[in-house]
Amino acid sequence: MGFFTKPENYEEMAERYGRGIAPELPTEVWEDRISRCQKLIGERGLDALLIYTNGNYIGGQEWARYFTNWVGGGPLWHDEVYIIIPVEGEPTWIMNWPQFVEIAREGSPMKDMRLYRGTGEGGLSTRWAALPPFLQSIFKEKGLAGRKVGFAHGGAQGSWGDITPHLAYQAIEEGCANVFLVEASDVIFDMIMVKTDYDIKMMRQANDLMEDALLSAIDACGDGVREYEVALAYYRTAWEGGSEAACRSHMHFNFRHPSCGGGNRPFESTTYKLKKGDMFYLDVAVRYQGYVGDTARTVVIGEPNKEQRQVFDASLRMHRAMADALKPGAAMAKVYDEFERMAREAEKMGFKNYRYHMVQTHGIGIMMNEPPAWSQLDVVLKENMIINLEPSVYIPFEHLGRVEDTYLITKGGHERLTRMDQDLYIR
To answer: Are 289 and 327 in the same domain?
Structure first.
């Protein structure tokens, strides 16, 4: 351990967290985000962008953090934020929880914050009733009536679709009756695909904290140790370093066992006692100051047998072959081709009844899963993109192996941001 260094303002951050306020976002970073967004808005021929986000990780809660530095405290879709960014002029954000107004204003660099009272006291039919006239009045105030406004769904971590509740979207469409509304979710995702210097700096720190926490978990593994004891070791290190756990997408810890067939279980960690011969991987993530570190390592309790080593070695070769394809100008299809090539090699080695993890690669940054996704084969890699590789090989009910690491695309190829060894960990 020892990758992560606590920041000098650690205690100041702790005080802000205690009051429900995210760490301060540097003014120049926020201004750059707004400026880059406005540039993209103009390039799309739009006059403004309306972004929907809510307090749910599948509803794109990260966008409220990214643009306003607000991390919602309300449950699920009840905590909503609407952000209006004009191609010129000051942006505005709207929230629907009056009890959070003072804290939200204090922690946000976006000063024009409005409140609409959409608490749903009359049920779903009236929850968004106040929103349409509220939006229309803001569009009129900003001189956007009759102009083209793009709408950006927050989406589910960037890769699983556009998620805006149906009744909310109906209210948004009614609220945009005095503008020309067009789909523009690509604007915000295009913004984050190539990372800024600040993004890269924060991703390094998030990865360092995550690795220290994962190594704590691995050190806790052993014959007779219960799973939850391993999880507690992980969480203690992550929380001590300042990891945020607003929801599962912010910090997670998962045992993946071959004993349940596909490697995935509906339970994070349990009272199960580890025993000699167990082979599993720990897939973990932390969120640090709005950025996600995510990796996985394979662990065996006791000396691994021949088959266990073969499965792990196959997964590691697959990972490294895919990593060799990471360079500017290469399409995601090339990375996937390397996966397919190594899969064929595994078949030649005599692997039977084996399977692979369906998500082989994904972008990462403010979200755990960002574009480019593994299925976006036509995306061409660019310098300063950040990609996670997580191929895994598993034989249902027997053995499995995975190495997941984070890579920065550099001018000359790539840099592995994950610094811990890619070994099979034996405990």
So the answer is: yes
